[in-house]
């Protein structure tokens, strides 16, 4: 009898040890986040504020429907958040995401979450495995705090690192999204699919409760005040000025929209390493590469295609994830950030 | 005269007062729905209605804020219709209208009897207005350009019940005063 008790006990102990691991495996994460943490997880947790709506009070879109570009009811200057993955292009209109903030989608057979925070003007994509991300209703630095519906772990969107729950301290796997106009995205990706207004929820998708991007009005005006407190304040740019930011374990850097319009290639030293930002004028964005050997970029040989930029010396460089955000939020999460292109820097 | 009889007589005993209370209820409901984001611009100019989400009628988006079940377009306006949000807006509006009518009646009685009428019935509606304005469409704060949402957010679950309690308390006080001043 005692011969059987021991293996049963071992199996039970193994189940106890493995079951949390099985739960943690649902949302793909990295043990060591690839972003600089300016504050401890405890400090981030203490900075969390209620945003108004409760958990899932802003409902994510969990069964998204799409239609063709020809069927899209979008104006040329309407903003979209674009994703190109595995040869598939998808456009998520800002007018829809402002009401839902998260789309749990599957692209090219890969489960992904498209996330957008209207209060910080930031759009980030994440691999989600078997999990779904939801809107917690809470904010850090005015930024959306997402939660993983499998483990309950909470992740500020612009940090991409869980600050609470079983996944605390682990980093999510990020995906590049492009914040651009419908006209620019459609020109680059004529076969793009577009998120439908048939979201399963009733919302006034013709109206943005915060203001308007074209023309700039309400909360989106560069000089307008933010609504929630931040951990660090910076006045180097107007609070809502849009920057293209990237961060690595070595540090963070942000480039202004004006600099991206003005310069085809921007070279930046962050920490002990070197990075190159290539302006994509058609999409009004930039592509960032790790360039430790300082390879010279041949601007005339650059090619801009569905997957981004290629040629001109970029072949040997490693792409770095970047995203657009409002300056006040970028500076709050990454107070030691390098800033390129502020008015004080222009000769 | 009892307070209840004075209340009934003031609100429904005279058609003009009943119309005033009803009108106030409708006007406040429209303002409330606009402030919580259920009523807004974006209509295509025509008239259309569809109700695809009746299954969400009881689903809450936040404290005392419910999911819309249908979309009504009328001219330039779009109404994302939630029966419960509409009933809440109407209910507070009727309470506010009742307070206004009773306050006016008490004031008229005070002129004859030379005593000071109580104030504050309009102040009692302030939490309800804040609850509408600071909910998921913080347009009032954006207009004011004040970083107040962080301060107001923890109070939101309490604002609506607080407003109802204050309006009920004010209505009861006014009814008692009116009954006392009526022979």
Give an overview of the whole structure.
The complex is a heterodimer of chains A (347) and B (183). Chain A folds into two domains: 29-195, no CATH class; 233-340, no CATH class. Helix content of chain A is 16%, strand content 36%. Chain A has 347 residues and is of the alpha+beta class. Chain A has helices at residues 2-24, 41-46, 94-100, 182-188, 257-262, 327-333; strands spanning 29-30, 49-50, 66-68, 79-85, 88-93, 102-107, 110-117, 122-127, 133-140, 143-148, 154-156, 171-172, 174-175, 178-181, 193-195, 211-213, 216-218, 242-248, 251-256, 265-270, 273-280, 285-290, 303-305, 308-310, 318-320, 322-326, 338-340. Chain A contains six helices and 27 strands. The model of chain A is unreliable at 16-25 (pLDDT under 50). Chain B is an alpha+beta fold and 183 residues long. Chain B has two domains: 3-36 and 82-181, no CATH class; 39-81, no CATH class. Chain B contains seven helices and six strands, in the order H-H-E-E-E-E-E-E-H-H-H-H-H. In chain B, the strands form two sheets. In chain B, strands 1-6-5-2 form a four-stranded antiparallel sheet. In chain B, a hairpin with a 2-residue loop joins strand 3 and strand 4 (65-66). The chains are: A alpha+beta (347), B alpha+beta (183). Chains A and B meet through strand 2 of A and strand 3, strand 6 and helix 5 of B. Chain B: Keywords: Membrane, Transmembrane, Transmembrane helix. Chain B: The chain crosses the membrane at residues 18-37, 77-102, 122-146, 158-175. Chain A: Keywords: Signal.
Number of E strands of chain B: 6
Spatial strand order of the main sheet of chain A: 3-15-5-4-14
Low-pLDDT stretches of chain A: 16-25
- Total tally of structural domains of chain B: 2
Please summarize the sheet with the most strands of chain A: 5 strands, mixed
- β-strand percent of chain B reads 5-15%
Give the overall shape of chain B, derived from the CA principal axes.
elongated
Protein name (chain A): DUF3179 domain-containing protein
Organism (chain A): Halomonas aestuarii
Keywords (chain A): Signal
InterPro entries (chain A): DUF3179
